[in-house]
């Protein structure tokens, strides 16, 4: 049996005779606190002979920001600067740049689905045109204009461009939509807002 266990006698208390349990076989393995390099409650390694000290891990490290993303989340609390699609060059310009380079109102084509079970929505696979839209027009406003033409409830609409679902709170310029651009219309999935 390992002889290095602390006893009551080592602390000024008289040693007690060991308790013997029938069938118990003692171990020769020391307790963890008796090993060299044992980590204390303070989280600091005890010096051990022959081992180099444990290097300190830096509390904070800096990594460069990802391209096209803001440096900190405070400049973009709602995640609006995240791009969801790319043009043929692989780059979308910011909403501000798009508004500076593209002037005047635009016409947008809306590709409607065929919904025979809801004839009141007037969707038979046709393409409708929304005319004279500002690039600053919000997607939610586009949905309202579709409702005015088709009677398709805005809350049931899902608009897509380039495979990405358009968010209500952003403008057409955010998606770099040009004059004559095509937006897909579909029924919003059940259970989603």
From TrEMBL:
The organism's place on the tree of life at top rank: Eukaryota
SUPFAM superfamilies from the UniProt entry: Ubiquitin-like
InterPro entries per the UniProt record, alphabetical: SF3As1_ubi, Ubiquitin-like_dom, Ubiquitin-like_domsf
Domain Ubiquitin-like: 132-192
Protein name, as recorded: 11124_t:CDS:1
Protein source organism: Acaulospora morrowiae
Lineage: Eukaryota, Fungi, Fungi incertae sedis, Mucoromycota, Glomeromycotina
């Amino acid at each position: 049996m390992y002889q290095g266990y602390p006893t009551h006698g080592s602390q000024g208390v008289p040693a007690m005779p060991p308790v013997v349990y029938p069938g118990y076989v003692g171990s020769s393995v020391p307790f963890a606190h008796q090993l060299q390099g044992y980590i204390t409650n303070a989280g600091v390694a005890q010096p051990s002979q022959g081992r180099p000290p444990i290097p300190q891990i830096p509390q904070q490290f800096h990594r460069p920001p990802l391209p096209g993303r803001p440096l900190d989340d405070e400049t973009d609390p709602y995640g609006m600067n995240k791009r969801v699609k790319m043009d043929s060059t692989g780059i979308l310009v910011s909403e501000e740049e798009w508004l500076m380079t593209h002037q005047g109102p635009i016409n947008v084509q809306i590709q409607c689905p065929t919904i025979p079970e809801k004839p009141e929505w007037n969707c038979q696979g046709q393409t409708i045109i929304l005319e004279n839209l500002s690039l600053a027009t919000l997607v939610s406003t586009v949905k309202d204009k579709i409702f005015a033409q088709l009677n398709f409830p805005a809350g049931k609409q899902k608009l897509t461009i380039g495979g990405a679902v358009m968010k209500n709170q952003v403008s057409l310029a955010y998606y770099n939509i040009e004059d004559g651009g095509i937006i897909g219309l579909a029924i919003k999935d059940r259970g989603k807002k």
